[in-house]
Amino acid sequence: MPSPERYRVLIPVLTTRRAADLLRVGAALLRGRPGQGSLLGVVEVPHGQPISRGVTVARRYRSLLNGISAAGQRNDAGFGVEVRVAHNLAQGIREAVYEVGANLLVLEWPGLSVRPGVSSVIANLVSDPPADLLLVRPDQGGIAPELTSILVPVSGGPSALVAPGIADAPAAGEGATIR
Question: Shortest CA distance to 131 belongs to which of 96, 165, 176?
Answer without folding.
Answer: 96
